[in-house]
Amino acid sequence: MKDLTYQELRRLLENDELSFDALVEGYKSDEKLRRKVISILASLPRESKIKEGNALLIILTRIDPALGGAIHRWTSGRFAEMRSAQEKGQGAFLGDVRCLESGLRHFPLWKKEVRHTSAHRLRWQKTLSTGRLELTSFLSCSRLGYKTDYAVNITLVFRKPRNARLLGSLSAHHGEGEVLLPRGAQFEMVERRKAEITLEQVGP
Predict the structure, then answer these.
(1) What does the alpha-carbon distance between residue 58 and residue 29 come to, in Å, rounded to a whole number?
(2) Which of 22, 64, 75, 194 could bridge to 172 as Cys pair (CB 3.0-4.6 Å)?
(3) What gap in Å lies between CA 142 and CA 161, rounded to an integer?
(4) How many CA atoms lie within 13 A of 121 on its CB side?
(5) Tens digit of pLDDT for each residue in 150-193?
């Protein structure tokens, strides 16, 4: 599966002769190539002939072990510890957080509506009370047409985010269509229903 994935990546890079070592060196030194590789891997559709969920992440991890490892840990269940490390500026996963913060700019920009579903309504009580939200850490969302398997007590709908980034097929759960909202983004509530609030971005 790794070889199949790499063959497809070479085809999408329009360079069937590119050796793996040459790709790794180019990825390190050429920011345009780095952005292109990440964009291709994140954007491959669900119906791609590559069916194994982690195959694309395996390829990124072979090319960029630090970034691939950070994405794997974030999307495979360590996001709570990573959020805590980002908020406090300390913790076992702070290195992963810093890696994601610096690497996120290479991921495709996503400006369409996304949704965050949560089982923990109390976590969003301040937003429900004040009508405003400033993210103190990354926030995982799903694109329209995708969904999570988690219990849902509240849904946050983010209209036209300005600086969200697509993890997409690089997520360990690529069926979620994952998009990351960055720390510091500010939103204002524009609509509220029983278990759903709609927000629009008002800050960076």
Answers:
(1) 21
(2) 75
(3) 12
(4) 10
(5) 667 899 999 999 999 999 989 887 777 899 999 999 999 999 98
Q: Amino acid identity, residue 184?
A: G
pLDDT in tens, 104-131: 999 999 999 999 998 888 889 899 899 9
Q: Which amino acid type is present at position 9?
A: L
Residue with tokens 């690529």: 174
Q: How far is CA 113 from CA 39, 66, 161, in A?
A: 19, 29, 7
